Amino acid sequence: MAKSMLEYYKTVLQKVSFDVKLFSKELKKAITKLLPDEIEELKAWLQDFITDKPELRPTLIYLKA
Predict the structure, then answer these.
(1) How far is 20 from 42, CA to CA, in rounded Å?
(2) Whole-number Å distance between alpha carbons of 11 and 16
(3) What secondary structure does DSSP assign to 1-65, as a single string?
(4) Please, are residues 31 and 62 in contact by the beta-carbon 8 Å criterion?
(5) Furthest C-alpha separation in the chain
(6) What pTM, to 2 d.p., does this model score?
């Protein structure tokens, strides 16, 4: 079964979460490629994902734009 773009970007973001700059770059890319409803789902996932990663909290600003 093909992986959805949302699942793909979740996987990518998990893998690059060690580097804030790379995480930001991939998050921006995801926002440009995903559909509006997928972006909303990504927001919810991201807020849960970064609860124990305070260094990634500033990246939430990209989802507010």
Answers:
(1) 17
(2) 9
(3) -PPPHHHHHHHHHHHTTT-HHHHHHHHHHHHHHS-HHHHHHHHHHHHHHGGG-GGGGGGGHHHH-
(4) yes
(5) 34
(6) 0.89
Side-chain half-sphere exposure of 63, counting CA atoms within 13 A: 22
For 50, residues 6+ apart whose C-beta sits below 8 A from its C-beta are: 56, 57, 59, 60
Residue range 5-26, pLDDT digits in tens: 999 999 999 999 999 999 999 9
Q: Which helix (H) or strand (E) holds 40?
A: helix 36-49
Q: CB of 56 within 8 A of CB of 23?
A: yes
Q: At what angle do helices 36-49 and 5-15 cross, to 10 degrees?
A: 30
